[in-house]
Amino acid sequence: MPQILIVAGEASGDLHGANLARALRELDPAVRLVGVGGAAMKSAGVQLVEGFGHLDVMGIVGFSALKAIIRRFAAMRRLLRSERWDAVVFIDNPGLNLRYAWFAKSAGLRVIYYIAPQIWAWRPGRMKYIQQRVDQVMVILPFEPELYRQVGLPCTFVGHPLLDAVAPYYDQAKLREQFGLQPTGRVIALLPGSRSAEVRLHLPILLDAAERLLRDDPTTQFLMPQASTIADDLIRPLLEKSSAAVTVVPEQASEVMAAADLICVASGTATLQAAVVGTPMVLFYQAHSWLTYRLARLLIRVKWIGLVNLVAGRPVVTELIQHEATGARVYHEVHRLLHDQAAYDEMKRSLQAVKASLGQPGASRRAAQVVLDACRA
């Protein structure tokens, strides 16, 4: 009976850990799964380590954060040495998980990393750390395997989990009816991000663009998915200040994207989600300060920040970053796409190619098979 420890540190990692756990149980009902994660992993049958909680310390500052990190480092070392795990699977969250992987490797355990660190974007020098601490990586972007093969680290492209989360087809008319929209008129989706700080910065930009679009066409309608991480008290005051009426939908980001003619989206995984849905988009992002932006530009090693452009290997989607991320510029790009049918159709074709490059559905099952094969080896 394989004994597998799954370590996830954030909400997204908890979801991926849950999907991986279900796939592991389907392939081997006898497998024993223990994990550090959240409610999603628990509901998937993972025995959570009591008193551990999530590994991140977001929201904790100063000396309290340092104490929390030290306590969790010590707890992780004890956990890794408590049993002879057949495999330890770390999911995403490289800031902490690569350090925990060192503990696992020092304990003589087999270490597998799922959704490997984005070394291609931030710190290529991290490759040596990964080589020292990880036995095998499972990646979800098509250009990543070659990077690991160049240094001789076993790597498997399992496909992107989004292909399992997004339906193969959506009925746009039914979705619009479901969300209480009028059957006629353009529908624009507004996606300011899933973190509170992002919403504070980005939602006013999107509402400015929405007001400008309404002056052009008063029949334009606006939809916004509300992530579970965003409180009503954060978005309500911002929406009340705007003359643009926005229909807010709890979660259901994919459905909101499918109901829309065009999406205004903050850079992140949501850009790939929009590509999988197939709706054209305008991508934007604004950092908290000019200094933060300049530091990021010094560290980033890629031509574009949008995942959809990185996967395509070319600028499929316009990127409005920092000083260009204004309501006026977002409005201009939306207006251009809505009135240039050739450009709109070309983007749709390019997004279909991006989706095709992400592999086939079943990423979690393929990842689970890699883990079980490693345990049996």
From TrEMBL:
SUPFAM superfamilies found in the cross-reference section: UDP-Glycosyltransferase/glycogen phosphorylase
Taxon lineage: Bacteria, Pseudomonadati, Nitrospirota, Nitrospiria, Nitrospirales
Organism: Nitrospira lenta
Name of the featured protein: Lipid-A-disaccharide synthase
Cellular component terms (Gene Ontology): membrane
Function per UniProt: Condensation of UDP-2,3-diacylglucosamine and 2,3-diacylglucosamine-1-phosphate to form lipid A disaccharide, a precursor of lipid A, a phosphorylated glycolipid that anchors the lipopolysaccharide to the outer membrane of the cell.
Enzyme Commission designation: 2.4.1.182
Enzyme class: transferase
Gene for this chain: lpxB
GO molecular function, one term: phospholipid binding
